[in-house]
């Protein structure tokens, strides 16, 4: 056996990961259920490095140095369990199975426990960066045992994206921690994309500008604080003319956003943990809403004139308002995402380092952005930061942005342009900083109809008012 690491599942992501490994000098065992893919990989890219192809899983396993390290890159869900079912009987204690698919972290926890009983390490690993990232350097988020990382770390850190000489890969924590962090990454990706889309829509409505003109605005933003992969490709997509019609590409694409489900998982888990990730939730629901074509058509007919005309007096001021509102809303989305990671880490006892997580998102992944460096600094300086909004750099941006944020959300509301993520981020900010919340009334109502009790501001204890009786208060 000569191969240092193996990859089974050679669709585009697996294929590119295998090539990345080989290009970095590792000897890579490769296998795919249908052998054509294995053959074409070796035929087309065999000169990039050392591949050891196998047509059977048994030969593949036998071609690997021990302890074996095997990357499984198949569709998340049942296909993963099917591969594990075949693979596990061929392995020996100490071997490492790495699942690089977008698995749900709860599945990863279950699989980790099952493989541990066979003496195997199961390492659920988040990989972000799409096809290009897999080939040229993704962001890699491995969970699993610390022991497995001693073998995997040097390999993954080598093939990951590098920022300032630091690899975008680190051990996140035990069992499902890596897939959990990847899940929240995707949730933030949803929020970020929704905010960008709303900013585009507002610019389009407020300026009566076309996509090509708005592309230039995004291009400008990408040279400042907002610099990020998503802003960069937004400019690219907006400037793109449709090949068939010559019209702006965004105008020929159906406005129904799809999803594979990782954003939904993020929201579902946040509900369980009680973490208000309102930006991610709005973004996820905005995608669902966009897909309800029949309802939308009916409502469009019924309420055609419900908005008010909108014209912007000063173009530059408005563009700057939208930029500041976008930045502030984006800070809220990231603050919420990091709150979610902290809560998950506590709930599942993972010990996740928030600054470290920001560090490995600086490059390779879809949400890579200049300001992740600021997030890293914020959590490195103060790991117990109550919310990212309080870190000086972010607090300044949010405070400076508040007037713009309010103008943009108010203008959008008046004009009838939906900006759910902008509006909900602002509401989150205002709720967090509110002196008193109407939650007190909610408590009163709960006590009134269901004797659910409440706490007082002036005394310790739990109380109930005898609403149907003499309205005196009793200790509950
Ligand atoms: C990444 C992405 C990727 C995700 C796609 C599509 O980090 O490379 O998050 O993992 O699968 O972005 O996601 P949706 O289909 O849910 O939009």
Give your account of this protein's structure.
With 476 residues, the protein is of the alpha/beta class. The protein contains 20 helices and 11 strands. Strands 3-2-1-4-5-6-7 form a 7-stranded mixed β-sheet, with helices on both faces. The chain has a two-stranded antiparallel sheet with strand order 8-9. Strands 10-11 form a two-stranded antiparallel sheet. Helix 5 links the parallel strand 5 and strand 6 (121-128). Helix 8 packs across helix 12, helix 15 (315-348) packs across helix 19 (420-433) and helix 16 packs antiparallel against helix 17. The chain is globular, with a radius of gyration of 25 Å. The termini are far apart. The mean pLDDT is 97. The structure holds 6-phosphogluconic acid (6PG). The site of 6-phosphogluconic acid has 12 residues, from helix 8 and helix 12.
Helix content: 55-70%
Number of helices: 20
Strand content: 5-15%
Ligand identities: 6-phosphogluconic acid
Domain 6-phosphogluconate dehydrogenase C-terminal: 178-468
EC number: 1.1.1.44
Binding site for substrate: 102, 128-130, 185-186, 190, 260, 287, 446, 452
Enzyme class: oxidoreductase
Fold topology:
Elements: E1 5-8, H1 12-23, E2 28-31, H2 35-45, E3 51-53, H3 57-62, E4 69-72, H4 78-87, E5 96-99, H5 105-116, E6 121-128, H6 130-136, E7 139-142, H7 146-159, E8 162-163, E9 166-167, H8 177-207, H9 211-221, H10 229-239, H11 249-252, H12 262-273, H13 278-291, H14 293-302, H15 315-348, H16 354-360, H17 372-381, H18 392-415, H19 420-433, H20 439-450, E10 463-465, E11 473-475
Parallel strand pairs: 1-2, 1-4, 2-3, 4-5, 5-6
Antiparallel strand pairs: 6-7, 8-9, 10-11
Helix pairs in contact: 1-6, 8-12, 8-13, 8-15, 9-10, 12-13, 13-19, 15-18, 15-19, 16-17
The structure holds 6-phosphogluconic acid.
6-phosphogluconic acid binds next to helix 8 and helix 12.
